[in-house]
Amino acid sequence: MPAAIEMVFFDIGGVMYSDTIYTDALRRALRDLGAIFTEEEFEAEYALARAAQSGSFRKRMAARFLGPGADVNALAAAAKRYWAYPPDALEPDVKPCLDALAGRYRLGIIANQPSQVRYAMSRDGIEDFFEIWGVSDDIGLEKPDPRLYAHVLYTAGISPMHTVMLGDRLDYDVIPAKTAGMRAVWILRGEAPEHPTGPQLAEADAAVRSLAEIPEVLAAL
Length: 221
Description:
The protein has helices spanning about 20-30, 40-50, 55-65, 70-80, 95-100, 115-125, 135-140, 145-155, 170-180, 200, 215-220, and strands spanning about 5-10, 105-110, 130-135, 165, 185, 205-210. The protein is α/β, with parallel strands linked by helices. It has 2 domains: about 5-20 and about 85-220, 3-Layer(aba) Sandwich (Rossmann fold); about 20-80, no CATH class. Helix 1 crosses helix 4 (about 70-80). The longest helix has 14 residues, at about 40-50.
């Protein structure tokens, strides 16, 4: 029998907050750095990145629109200026899901986000649900670095076999979580592909399109 799940880790962008905020920040940052492209060109390249689920979207977009050797760190810094979640960016299924999980599981965060994301989460009434915080800007490590997962699990004082990761990226959430010994549920929105392939879906323990499905899925893992 699989070990009982005791703790659930959430990604933030794409899972709890609309990923359009980061997408728009990246679009604006590219133009700030001199890139010239149509909306259709940007959306097409972004869709390819979502379908591939392989490596940094920033690097891919920088190479496509700023050219080989583009300064990805400069792009990240430029995007951060626009990367802040307004209240209406919180997905409507987040609070009901957190209410359903609270008291049954310990909850934590593993996310590539600026530190100020906690302001938005506090404002929106969801910060207090989370006990453990693995935010990249706070720790100095970014997914998919296995050291981020190891750090968060160590801080939580929990064996990975008793945990599950909820994320919208196969390469940044599902695969590194599984490698760390966690279970993983792929949330099919945000940076997930519109039409994931069978082999992609097989990487996760489960895949859902809404957090409303999470309590039932966790009970079945």
